[in-house]
Amino acid sequence: MLVKLFKGLWLVMGWLRFSEAGNMFDCINRPNTAFPVPIHVEEVKDIVSVAKYILVVEKESVFQRLANDQFCNTNHCIVITGRGYPDISTRRFLGLLVDTLHLPTYCLVDCDPYGFDILFTYRFGSMVRLPDHSMNLLSVVYKLK
User: Fold this and answer.
1) pTM (2 decimals)?
2) Which residue in 48, 98, 132, 139 could disulfide with 17, CB within 3.0 to 4.6 Å?
């Protein structure tokens, strides 16, 4: 079974429901279907979840495999991918989920320098953004366990 993916966007699936700018994203009714990660995270409201944890995966192919294997149905979790290095909105959305839902968060990356760099980008934010004082650095520090 192939799950249709949104090309060019970062993805989330699992036991989650939220609204963004008046659009409702109901992943709970189809937990193994990929939905786009919201771009305007500040407009995300009404977050509801019955998940047990959040799983962040580095690769889209792993995300696709988990969707095809009905991983979220069996494990009652939320799976999110930044398709490699995550953008700011993916990191902010993950931070919002962690802060709102208070769920344990795990990260599945390759065991190589690039995988660790991606893990640290989720955990601490991008080194490229550090000199930019216009962004509150506390908002990109997450409680990944």
Assistant:
1) 0.78
2) 48
Q: Give the SS3 label for residue 4.
A: coil
The residue extents of the domains of the chain are: 11-140
User: Is the CA virtual torsion 105, 129, 109, 45 positive or negative?
Assistant: positive
Per residue in 74-90, pLDDT (tens digit) is 999 999 998 888 888 88
- DSSP per-residue codes, 29-79: TSTTS-EEPPS-GGGEEEEEE--SEEEEES-HHHHHHHHHTTHHHHH-EEE
Look at domain 11-140 and name its CATH class.
alpha beta
Specify the residue for token string 């506390």. 138
pLDDT tens column, 118-139: 888 888 877 655 444 433 433 3
CA–CA separation, 56 vs 44, rounded Å?
19
Residue 50, Cβ neighbours under 10 Å: how many? Answer: 13
